[in-house]
Backbone:
């Protein structure tokens, strides 16, 4: 299973008056991790869009353990957890050094520009195979 690490720093605008990161920023950091992971696989979102495939979020979940604070350097650990005909799932951990601050997942659909689900394996075998390789999955 492919795992990727990305770092971000908590900016002042990401925090409340007490210097604690606003809860919705964790979902933004999930997106940063996911985008960088896809880029590391040489599958940036533009490659999907060129093939008329989009990946809207179907589900998002985040469990908060400890707060991130202004100026913390965070590591976003992203894993491609599963791949199915019309969807995929990413898992995330947000860490400050060795401390787990939050964990969660997002589930995405493969859809065309009309919003209709597409079976990626049939619609774009190239993209399907690249994602399978990231999962060490045999086709």
Residues:
């Amino acid at each position: 299973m492919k795992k990727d690490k990305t770092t971000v720093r908590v900016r002042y605008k990401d925090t409340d008056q007490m210097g604690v990161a606003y809860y919705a920023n964790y979902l933004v950091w999930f997106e940063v991790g996911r985008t960088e992971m896809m880029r590391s696989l040489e599958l940036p979102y533009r490659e999907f869009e060129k093939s008329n495939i989009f990946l809207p979020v179907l589900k998002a979940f985040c469990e908060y353990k400890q707060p991130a604070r202004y100026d913390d350097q965070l590591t976003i650990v992203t894993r491609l957890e599963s791949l199915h005909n019309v969807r995929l799932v990413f898992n995330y951990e947000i860490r400050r050094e060795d401390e787990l601050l939050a964990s969660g997942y997002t589930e995405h659909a493969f859809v065309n520009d009309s919003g209709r689900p597409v079976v990626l394996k049939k619609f774009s075998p190239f993209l399907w195979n690249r994602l399978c390789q990231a999962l060490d999955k045999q086709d």
